[in-house]
Amino acid sequence: MLSDNFFKYFWEERPILLKGLLSPEKLFPITKGEFFKLCVSPILVRAYQRVENEDTGSALSTIIDDYGLIKPFYESALEFKQPITLLLNNVEKVSKKLLDLRDSFNVKRSWRYDDIVLTLSNVNSGIGFHAGHEDGFICQMKGKRIWNVYEPSTLSPSYIRSVLGSKEEIVSQLKRPKEDPILSVILEPGDVLYLPPLYGHEGITLEESISASIAWRGITPGFILTKLGVKYLNLSVVKDNRKDFFKIYSERELAFAKIHEELIQVYHDRFNLDLKSKFISEKLGKIIETF
Ligand SMILES: [Fe+2]
C-alpha cells in the first residue's frame, strides 16, 4: 500500500497527507453502533472535552470505566453540543479488522507495534495539541477532521525528554504553538495522515468523525533496556548522557552492534555488571532477530 518513495523520503522524516490511501474495502466504514460494541474489556475508554481558554489547544480528560455509560454519555454530549471525543486504547485486542488494516500498511517492524487507537468525536471536539515518540498513521474512516502539524522545534526540550521516557520531567499540559503549522489538512474518509516522531499536532472535528491511529513506537536505549527487563534502571543515573539516551534512533542507526555497544556502556558504567552474561546476549539476539 505504501510506495518505496514513501519509505525513502518520508518514513521517520517528514509528515505527509496520503490522500485516498484507503480503498473502501480497507476502510470498512465503521458505524457508531459498531464503535460502541467495541467498548468491552480490556479496552480503555477515555473522554476528552476540548477547552479553549488561556491554555489554547488543550482538553480535559477522564477515564470511563463503566462501559454501559459510554453510549448515553456520548448521546447527551451530542444533544447539549458539548465537544467530546471518545478514545479507545488497545482496540487491536477486540478487532481483527483493525489488525488487518495495520498489516495492509506492510510496514512490518512488529517489535515496534503500539496499541491501535480508535476515536469517535462530535463537531468542534479534539484532544488538544500534543506530540508523540511514534511513527503514526491517522486513518479517517467517517466524517471530517482538520489537522494542523507543527515542527518539532516548537516543543520545549523538557517536553521532548518527557515524551521520550524521562521520568524526571513530566510535562502534560501543552499550549498550541504560536508558530504557523507546517501542514494544515482536512481528512476525509479514506485519507491517511502520516506523522513522524515529535511533530506536534492537533485535530479538530468538522463533521462527526471516526478515525483510527496506527503507530510504531519510537525506540530509545531506555526502551530496549526496559524490554530486557531492567526494572531497576533509574533513568536519573544517565544524566550525563541524557540527550543521547532519550534520542529516537532511526532504523539505520539501530544496528545490532551499535545498540549492543551502548547497552554495554550503560551497564558497565552504571551497574558494573558482568556484561558478557549469556542471558543478556540471548535476549538482545531475540530483539535484533526481529529487525
Ligand atoms: Fe496524536
TrEMBL record:
Signal peptide: none annotated. It comes from the Bacteria. SUPFAM superfamilies: Clavaminate synthase-like (SSF51197). Residues 96-233 form the JmjC domain. This is JmjC domain-containing protein.
